[in-house]
Design brief:
- The protein is an alpha/beta fold and 444 residues long.
- The chain folds into two domains: 162 residues, no CATH class; 252 residues, Alpha/Beta hydrolase fold, catalytic domain (Rossmann fold).
- The protein contains 13 helices and ten strands.
- The protein has an eight-stranded mixed sheet with strand order 1-2-4-3-5-6-9-10, with helices on both faces.
- Helix 4 links the parallel strand 5 and strand 6.
- Helix 3 crosses helix 4 and helix 5 runs antiparallel to helix 7.
- The protein is globular, with a radius of gyration of 22 Å.
Length: 444
């Protein structure tokens, strides 16, 4: 458990270093691909290709019985290091066995830059056309930041792709970073510590321990009234009342140490873009699902620190660094998201659903929830089922069923997320010492 805490804390600090401006580079980073790490052994009956294209490493695998379909994989956040690396597709064995080719790019930059990921993945799809052959259909998918990349590709180049499968994705672009801000400024107000954003260098070492102590005798497991208000606020800002939130709250704030506090250590700026990119000036905070503000909620909204983003840092057009996902969907998209993830929360799916609905394209979006609290912790069965259902939709016209992520009553149902969860696979709570995180079983 100690190793898990350390790894997650390091990931939090690294993510914010890239995303919200802990450091700004004086010169362009000299990204590189170690070409000795690109070769891989093809599966039986398939051909493996690798190399560097436009500064990005790539891997391609084509089965001998290629069915004419290509599946592009977009990887998640890689940190801020200079070495660029490639992931194999997580469904590699299944895809090759079924005749699908796959391709994956390292991207030509690291940090949180879905714009670059989208451009490099799109370039790889075009490169495949010349190197291997023009596919009959091309599918795109990716996880976490790769889900953001996938969504951007689907919206930017709909004629190039047949269907999209973003999983655990940052579907709401800047809304994710606003949520990180929400957690930290709310904790400061409710604890009475009242440190103002951006926080100083002693935030994690000195301020956060005092903040936690003021929120309960054993944060996050034993909370006082202020701590309970923070948990309620985080629940509402991360997707509303729903199963697995409590498990997620304990995991991300307890088992994972100060992970969510670590997401508040930046100054709100983004690499290569001027000005603060996060804001909460447009948020009305609530501690529960009652839309009528209580006196305590009204007082909190009056007291909490407000941050307004600089317009030039929060561009809403084109392929900006944190590329907007306005909901301009023109191809079928089937998504997957865990309910208790508080790193890239379920709220991302709801935000994107609202945007797509505003564009009149809801018929092209199907979303599914699974019952877990990890980030991108899907089983092979869940991933294969999602991909197969997407293909059946695209090529057979059979639109798959999904969850109504915008109906608060449906989301709050104790069995929400059961339909698309693989109930036979071991989960994180099956690990020694984590049994207290096991959620109630789904109704038979």
């Amino acid at each position: 458990m100690k190793m898990l805490k350390t790894a997650l804390a390091a990931a939090a600090v690294a993510l914010l270093t890239a995303q919200v401006g802990v450091v700004t580079a004086a010169a362009p980073a000299a990204y590189y691909v170690d070409e000795t790490k690109l070769p891989f052994t093809a599966l039986a009956g398939a051909q493996a290709l690798w190399g560097v294209h436009n500064g990005a490493g790539y891997r391609i695998e084509v089965p001998a019985n290629w069915n004419g379909r290509l599946v592009i994989w977009a990887h998640g956040y890689r940190g801020t290091g200079l070495e660029l690396t490639v992931d194999n597709h997580p469904l590699r064995n299944f895809l090759v066995s079924q005749g699908y080719a796959w391709a994956a790019s390292s991207y030509s930059k690291n940090a949180y830059d879905p714009s670059q990921g989208a451009k490099d993945s799109h370039a790889l799809a075009q490169f495949f056309n010349g190197r291997v052959g023009k596919p009959v259909k091309t599918y795109i998918g990716g996880a976490s930041m790769g889900g953001h990349v996938t969504t951007v590709m689907a919206e930017q180049w709909p004629r190039s792709y047949a269907g999209a499968m973003p999983i655990c994705g940052v579907m709401g672009d800047y809304e994710l970073f606003d949520y990180f801000l929400d957690f930290n400024v709310a904790a400061q107000t409710l604890s009475g510590m009242n440190q103002t954003y951006p926080f100083g260098p002693d935030y994690l070492g000195t301020v956060v321990p005092a903040t936690k102590a003021a929120l309960g005798p054993a944060f996050p497991f034993d909370l006082n009234a202020a701590g309970q208000s923070l948990a309620g606020l985080v629940q509402m800002r991360s997707g509303g009342v729903r199963p697995l939130f409590q498990q997620g709250w304990l995991f991300w704030n307890g088992v994972a140490g100060d992970f969510l506090f670590g997401l508040g250590v930046g100054d709100g700026t983004l690499p290569r873009q001027p000005g603060v990119a996060v804001q909460n000036s447009d948020v009305t905070y609530q501690f529960d699902a009652d839309p009528t503000l209580s006196p305590a909620e009204t007082a909190f909204n009056d007291m909490v620190q407000r941050v307004t983003a600089d317009p030039q840092a929060r561009r809403r057009n084109g392929l900006a660094n944190v590329t907007p996902t306005p909901g301009d969907l023109k191809i079928p998209m089937l998504t997957l998201h865990t309910l208790g993830d508080l790193f890239v929360p379920f709220h991302m799916q709801q935000e994107y659903a609202r945007r797509v609905a505003a564009k009149g394209a809801s018929d092209l979006l199907v979303q599914r929830a699974t019952r877990d609290f990890g980030h991108c912790t899907f089983t092979p069965t869940e991933l294969v089922t999602t991909f197969v259902d997407l293909v059946a939709w695209v090529e057979g016209g059979v639109k798959p069923a999904g969850d109504d992520v915008l109906d608060p009553a449906a989301v709050a149902d104790p069995d929400f997320g059961c339909t698309y969860t693989d109930k036979t696979a071991p989960r994180l709570w099956n690990s020694p010492g984590l049994g207290f995180l096991a959620p109630p079983a789904c109704a038979p």
